[in-house]
Amino acid sequence: MAKDRDSDLPKVTVLVVSYNTAGHLRDCLAGLDGVHEVIVVDNASTDGSAALVAESFPDVRLIANKTNRGFGAANNQGLDVMTGDVALLLNSDAVPTPGAVEELARAMLDPTVVACGGRLTFPDGRAQNSACGRLTLWRVWCEQMLWEKIFPFSRWLNGYWLNDWIPSDRTTEVEQVMGACLMIHPVERFDERFFLYCEDTELCRRLRGHGRIVYVPSAVFTHELGASSSSTRWESVARYNRGKELYFSIHHSPFAGLMCFVFDRCGAALRLMLYCLFFGYMFISGDYSKFKNITLWWQVLTAPRLGPPRPPDS
Question: Do 176 and 292 reside in the same domain of the chain?
């Protein structure tokens, strides 16, 4: 393994996939000053993201796609040309705190570790889901039936997200860390059948065949969750559901994928029903802000089996 000239840490290549998040991308790249190599793969943004990189960050390698290839495929483009020893896959709306990248690189010195991730926080400092357990149909059912929200202190009913169940003061082995901040030895690539969501779950499953995945809470990253999809929430939910269904079809069976599909649609129907029940109360109280949720969950419930259409290209 090649070493950085200033330390014994592995050389890090940071891969940032961008899609219409120019403001966040600027902050992200500014926070990566001093990293060995930074590569931005822009997925046909229409907000000037590619021009921003070219003009304001000349030392950053830019790959400007003419089509939106999706998160996994764009990261694969970066993996193909990286020169570092390890790759940090970082969302364009995530910013490392001082020393965070080095903390992750230090964890990768352990020869048994194939991947690691840091602690994600919202801009106001609140903790964000950063690591999770194995994805199972039982956990999908608990999510869709709202059991994980009704029983937040039950690890049996709310055991997928691990923030409340793992130590916050030491490195811990986990099943998966978030693709928003995922450092890996480049021994596997993303499955490009996934357009957006759950591709990190699928990748981590294969990475575990090469070693351990660890959560490093001392490496803190501020993450503006969902910045590139905040205006199309129903599409984000539907793509997340489709990602889970594809994951089960690939790693379990087509029947498991079908069961996940049924669970996801049951969850959308439940939420739609609950919002409809409160429709009268919202109308009388004058709180019209929740009406949009009825439309949202109807769109999720009736979304195409293979997920929403991909975003239009620039």
Answer: no
Contacts of 36 (CB under 8 A, 6+ apart): 4, 11, 12, 13, 84
Same domain, 136 and 258: no
- Residue 80 included in any domain: yes
Beta strands in the chain (DSSP E): 12-18, 37-43, 61-65, 86-91, 94-96, 113-121, 131-132, 172-173, 176-177, 181-184, 212-223
Q: Indicate whether this model's pTM tops 0.85.
A: yes
Tokens of 291: 């009406």
Q: Which domain holds residue 281?
A: 233-301
Mean pLDDT of 64-91: 96
Q: What whole-number distance in Å separates Cα of residue 223 and Cα of residue 180? A: 8
CA–CA separation, 234 and 299 (whole Å): 6
Is 260:240 a contact under the CB 8 Å cutoff? no
pLDDT tens-digit readout, 30-72: 999 878 899 999 999 999 999 999 999 999 999 999 999 999 9
Instruction: List % helix, strand, coil for the chain (3-state, nearest 5).
Output: 40, 20, 40
- What is the percentage of the chain residues whose pLDDT exceeds 90? 82
Calpha distance 54→34 (Å, rounded):
18
**Rounded alpha-carbon distances, angstroms, from residue 44 to 5, 30, 53, 102:** 35, 21, 13, 31
Count of the separate structural domains present in the chain: 2
On whether both 252 and 292 belong to a single domain, the answer is yes
- The CATH number given to whatever domain includes residue 166 is 3.90.550.10
Asked if residue 133 and residue 198 are part of one domain, the reply reads yes
Beta strand residue intervals within 110-178, DSSP E: 113-121, 131-132, 172-173, 176-177
Q: What is the pLDDT of residue 45?
A: 92
Q: Are residues 209 and 270 in the same domain?
A: no
